[in-house]
Write a structure and sequence with these properties.
Elements (H helix, E strand, L loop, with lengths): L1 H6 L5 H25 L7 H25 L8 H15 L4 H21 L5 H20 L10 H8 L1 E2 L2 E2 H19 L1 H11 L1 H6 L4 H27 L11 H10 L11 H20 L4 H20 L7
Antiparallel strand pairs: 1-2
Helix pairs in contact: 2-13, 3-8, 3-11, 3-12, 3-13, 4-5, 4-6, 4-11, 5-6, 5-11, 7-11, 8-9, 9-11, 12-13
């Protein structure tokens, strides 16, 4: 066993560890439901599809967040990029609802990227400021109340309907995943992201236009947040204040738990997908166990810290 573990590539270990945690969570949840209710819903296909459907929203946000974290930056404007895109999509309505939301994501990502790449403002500060601006604009737009506008039929179809028994939201997440994985693995832009995240100065001296790379990564993050907002509004049938607040920390956690180095330069998209599934199942099992909010936060944080300690000790940080 020890020789087998030693042969595992370092970049694969976080994904395998996260997968192991998923198995443990499923076992604990299954044993609990069998003892308390005499059934094991966690093993049913319907339960798995339901969790993947709700996890699709987080998964799309995490896909964009990973692009930024690979550069050693962070995007704290996610909550209100998501909310702004959802609110404006429902306000515009019709055939222009989704293009409007995507356009907002592009504009927010462009603003974030320009501020970080050209003005050299730390991403944590600049994106937090952009998030505050978006919040103020939406409060002014709605008067501080939930807008009365409803999601369009296409938004509801993408978020809540099913094809052959499988939620359409899962297909949307799968398409986003294929796009991100292909871009990171097979394109020059993806290779430039890893190079810039490892050492921006060296990447620049080697001929990579690092500023464009940073702007591009933030645009992808903005578009992913906007798309998640469209789906969430469709799932809820409307947009509402603060609908994106619950996605920021879980998205960051999913990326980091999946093995992406918070300082940039290392990470695989498959790990992010596994990290999303881990967080979704953990929250679901804690809900089934009717864990008080205080206990849920303690367990949630302990799992994150525990996993980081397990595979983080072996990682070397190059400065």
């Amino acid at each position: 066993m020890q020789s087998y573990i030693s042969r595992i590539k370092p970049e694969n270990k976080p994904t395998l560890i996260a997968s192991g945690f998923i198995v443990v969570i499923l076992l604990i949840g299954t044993i609990y439901t069998l003892v308390s209710h005499g059934t094991a819903p966690l093993l049913s296909p319907n339960y798995v599809l339901q969790q993947l459907q709700t996890g699709a929203f987080l998964g799309i946000v995490a896909a964009g967040m990973m692009m930024v974290i690979l550069l050693g930056h962070i995007d704290l404007s996610v909550p209100w990029t998501l909310t702004t895109a959802a609110m404006m999509a429902t306000t515009v309505g019709g055939d222009m609802a989704i293009p409007t939301a995507i356009g907002i994501g592009i504009l927010v990502g462009l603003a974030n990227g320009m501020g970080v790449a050209f003005l050299r403002i730390p991403s944590m500060i600049f994106t937090l400021g952009v998030d505050s601006v978006l919040r103020g604009l939406m409060v002014a737009h709605t008067g501080g109340f939930a807008p009365p506008d409803q999601a369009t039929a296409l938004m509801r179809f993408l978020a809540a309907d099913k094809i052959a028994g499988i939620p359409v939201a899962i297909f949307v997440w799968a398409l986003v995943s294929v796009f991100i994985a292909f871009m990171l693995k097979r394109t020059g832009f993806g290779k430039s992201i890893y190079a810039t995240g490892n050492r921006e100065t060296a990447a620049y001296l080697s001929g990579i236009r690092t500023r464009r790379v940073i702007v591009g990564a933030f645009i992808v993050s903005g578009v992913c947040s906007a798309l998640a907002g469209v789906l969430l509004a469709g799932y809820s049938a409307k947009a509402y204040q603060g609908m994106g607040n619950a996605f920021l920390l879980p998205a960051i956690a999913a990326v980091v738990l999946g093995g992406t180095r918070i300082l940039g330069g290392q990470g695989r998209y498959l790990g992010t997908v596994v990290g999303v599934i881990l967080i979704v199942l953990l929250n679901s099992v804690l809900s089934i166990m009717q864990m008080p909010e205080a206990g849920r936060q303690v367990i949630y944080g302990s799992v994150i810290v525990g996993m980081l300690l397990v595979y983080g000790r072996g990682q070397k940080i190059v400065s």
